[in-house]
Specification:
Elements lengths: L1 E4 L4 H12 L5 E4 L10 H4 L9 E3 L5 E3 L1 H11 L10 H18 L5 H9 L5 H25 L13 H15 L8 H11 L2 H6 L10
Parallel strand pairs: 1-2
Antiparallel strand pairs: 1-3, 3-4
Helix pairs in contact: 1-3, 1-7, 4-6, 4-7, 7-8
Length: 213
């Protein structure tokens, strides 16, 4: 398999975590979003959305959207499972995941932040204030869901799930923008437990071949 991704992309980071948890190998193909590589024909011609990640299977089939990719991997490589075996558990894990994927990430990703600066002429600090507000707001909702349980070492029980794959990259990005995590007790405990896990360590940005400090 080939994985087109960018070391700083949280969506790409999610898929790298899932693949590491499942012990799947892949060819790492960097697409530098900040330089605009995703707009060049070499990538734009194969990526309908022009975004990362994109997973190319051995038969040439291409998959996009991080949650769809992870659920595909979970169905085709079921061990270890990233979704609980019960319907209620799956619903909870998907809801936690969607707080990040649907509520936090879409209004704070790179193209949105660039639009704020370039087209709307928003200065750097107001842009960062925007980012911090929406990430913090979303994580407060995430915290309430974790507090309601069942939460163990990880978001749902004592093994990593899809929700952990989504949470960790969002915390990494929040750290870059100096988001306050004060009071997010359950969330940060889960994050720390994740980062003690070898799969999460193997997937983090500094382990990527295109990493730039």
């Amino acid at each position: 398999m080939k994985l087109y991704n960018y070391f700083r992309s949280s969506a790409s980071f999610r898929v790298r975590i899932a693949m590491a948890l499942k012990g799947l190998s892949y060819e790492y193909l960097p697409v530098h979003l900040a330089r605009g590589d995703h707009k060049l024909p070499a990538y734009a011609d194969i990526a309908a959305e022009g975004l990362v990640p994109l997973l190319e299977l051995d038969d040439g089939t291409r998959l996009t959207q991080s949650m769809a990719i992870i659920e595909y991997l979970d169905e085709t490589h079921p061990e270890p499972p990233l979704l609980p075996s019960d319907a209620l558990g799956r619903a909870r894990v998907r809801a936690l995941s969607q707080i990040v994927a649907c509520e936090i990430h879409p209004i704070n990703n790179l193209r949105v932040l660039k639009y704020l600066v370039r087209e709307l002429k928003v200065d750097e600090e107001p842009k960062n204030t925007w980012y911090r507000h929406w990430v913090r707001s979303g994580l407060e909702a995430f915290e309430k869901q974790l507090a309601a349980g069942p939460t163990g070492r990880y978001c749902h029980g004592d093994t990593p799930t899809l929700a952990d794959c989504l949470l960790v990259p969002q915390i990494f990005n929040g750290q870059r923008f100096n988001v306050s995590f004060d009071g997010l007790t359950h969330t940060m405990r889960v994050f720390d437990n994740c980062m003690a896990h070898p799969a999460f360590q193997a997937a983090e940005p500094k382990a990527c071949p295109d990493f730039e400090a």
